[in-house]
Design goal:
Elements (H helix, E strand, L loop, with lengths): L1 E6 L10 H19 L3 E8 L4 H9 L4 H18 L6 E4 L3 H14 L3 E11 L4 E3 L1 H6 L3 E2 L4 E2 L1 E10 L5 H10 L3 E3 L1 H13 L4 E2 L1 E3 L8 E2 L2 E6 L1 H6 L1 H4 L7 H6 L4 E5 L3 H14 L7 E5 L2 E3 L2 E2 L10 H8 L1 H10 L7 E3 L1 H31 L14 H8 L3 H22 L1 H6 L3 H22 L4 H11 L18
Parallel strand pairs: 1-2, 1-14, 2-3, 9-15, 14-15, 16-18
Antiparallel strand pairs: 4-5, 4-8, 6-7, 8-10, 11-13, 12-13, 16-17
Helix pairs in contact: 2-3, 7-11, 12-13, 14-16, 14-18, 15-16, 16-18, 18-19
The chain binds 5'-O-[(L-methionyl)-sulphamoyl]adenosine (MSP).
5'-O-[(L-methionyl)-sulphamoyl]adenosine (MSP) binds next to helix 1, helix 8 and strand 14.
Length: 477
């Protein structure tokens, strides 16, 4: 079976933060699990490189948008590597292939595109258009970016979003297009109830030149969002490539809560206009705050993923953001909770279970593992949790098993069995512990691939291969 999964493509106006990293990691879990289950996977990520925001930043730095985008895009690629993200593709919206295919898409959408005059407001920080009412509510200043909205009065192209709202709504209601979680689905439904207007999809070239020209009109540039959404099919080679034919529609698209409207209304409408199927699932994650406050450069609490990964490793990072940030809501990163989770759950609970098991087999059986029978735990809950993108719940399940194993060891007391000189019984008990750990490793693989591999390497060959050092070394506070 084919499985296609995407993340949103971050703007490259600044370096990646922990919110970007969390999204990468979530998608990676689903991609790895799909591969484990034998699916043929395309997992795509990328970078969103056009638009006024990036042009502005490049100008500030005295460089060209292309050079700036090259440099910044590379930092996202590097983060993916560092976190062991297993993406198969990384699309840049400045790739020639994307640009060419985006023009083809525009042409295919032309039946629903018309020229008109746009009068309204724009915030380059959001790369989004705002209505008179929204701007009034905020007193003329964009609350996300602390800058005045730009008044716009210009000729633009429009896309007939209104024509498709009923169809998209029906697809959501019928479950053909599932939005997870329910709260976000409800949010988007109320948006549909208010009705959606047609949207502006281009800007005059003399105002925005850093983008893809509208085919057949050298004076207009495609609106960055309209063009960026197309990445999900240009990366597969829309319209003619075999990958596109085989892998679209996406199984899961992952985005953050601030960009639902683009993914649950505009993108599906574009797909319907192209006569393509809608993605099966749109999973919407929440926002991460840092030490209880919105993360921002001006508050001085911008957290680069490297600050965590360099000290604690990729797997500890992955673990924290998947288990301790709620999968269905907003969450908070604080060093205190991170370090507590690291020490208690990774170093003590998981690390000790592995360490004790390996050490006892070394001590009592010269490293020789007895007959390992397959573990018989019920993993239905774990699987259901993953299908529902409840990463936190899935890890709770794994941890119930880790704790269960530690309790088993405490109750069985293999050291007592050794004293009582019951080698057969001891061998069975130790082999049971190994089978449990091997299953834990398998369940952990999508979440913590390095750790899973290390655990398997210790136990898989019939004799213990001790780990060099410790799985999760403790740090002094
Ligand atoms: N370029 C657009 C996406 C285009 S997709 C066709 C964009 N980029 S972004 O860099 O602003 O955001 C990228 C992703 O990061 C989004 O899913 C967004 O929700 C997510 N996050 C941004 N800040 C975040 C947090 N503080 N916490 C968690 N995720 C956050 O939007």
């Amino acid at each position: 079976m084919k499985y296609y999964i995407t993340t949103s493509i971050p703007y490259v106006n600044g370096p990646p933060h922990i919110g970007h990293a969390m999204e990468f990691v979530m998608a990676d879990v689903l991609a790895r699990q799909a591969r484990q289950q034998g699916e043929t996977v395309i997992f795509s990520m990328g970078s969103d490189e056009h638009g006024g925001k990036i042009a502005e930043k490049a100008a500030e730095q005295g460089t060209t948008p292309q050079e700036f985008a090259d440099k910044m895009s590379a930092t996202f690629v590097a983060l993916g590597r560092k976190l062991n993200i297993s993406n198969d593709r990384f699309i840049r919206t400045t790739d020639t292939a994307h640009e060419q295919r985006a023009k083809l898409i525009w042409k295919a959408l032309e039946k629903d595109i018309y020229k008109g005059q746009y009068i309204g407001w724009y915030c380059t920080g959001d790369e989004a258009f705002f209505t008179e009412t929204e701007v009034k509510e905020n007193g003329g200043i964009c609350p996300n970016h602390n800058r005045p909205y730009d008044k716009i009065e210009e000729d633009n192209y429009f896309f007939k979003l209104s024509k498709y709202t009923e169809k998209v709504r029906t697809a959501i209601e019928s479950g053909a297009f599932t939005i997870i979680p329910e709260t976000k689905r409800n949010e988007i439904m109320s948006l549909f109830n208010e009705g959606l207007d047609d949207i502006s999809i281009s800007r005059p070239k003399d105002k925005i030149s850093w983008g893809i020209p509208v085919p057949g009109d050298a004076h207009q540039t495609m609106y960055v969002w309209f063009e960026a959404l197309m990445n999900y099919i240009t990366v597969l080679g829309y319209p003619e490539h075999e990958d596109f034919k085989q892998f679209w529609p996406a199984n899961v698209q992952i985005v953050g809560k601030d960009i639902i409207r683009f993914h649950a209304a505009i993108w599906p409408a574009m797909l319907l206009s192209l006569e393509l199927e809608l993605p099966k699932v749109l999973y919407v994650h929440g926002f991460i705050n840092v030490e209880g406050r919105k993360m921002s450069k001006s508050l001085g609490n911008f957290l680069a993923p490297d600050d965590i990964i360099d000290k604690y490793g990729a797997d500890a990072f992955r673990y924290f953001f998947l288990r301790h940030i709620p999968s269905y809501g907003d969450g908070d990163f604080s060093w205190a909770t991170f370090e507590a989770a690291y020490n208690n759950e990774l170093a003590n609970e998981l690390g000790n279970a592995v360490q004790r098991t390996a050490a006892m087999i070394m001590k009592y059986q010269d490293g020789v593992i007895g007959e390992v029978l397959p573990s018989e735990h019920d993993i239905a809950q774990y699987q259901q949790a993953l299908t529902a993108c409840k990463f936190d719940r899935a890890l709770d399940e794994v941890w119930a098993q880790v704790r269960g194993l530690n309790q088993y060891i405490d109750v069985e007391k293999p050291w007592m069995i050794a004293k009582q000189d019951e080698p057969d019984h001891l061998r069975e008990v130790l082999a049971y512990m190994v089978s449990d750990l091997l299953e834990i490793a398998e369940l952990l693989e999508p979440f913590m691939p390095e750790t899973a591999e290390k655990i398997e390497a210790v136990f898989r060959d019939g004799t213990i291969k001790p780990i060099e050092g410790t799985l999760f070394p403790k740090f002094e506070a």
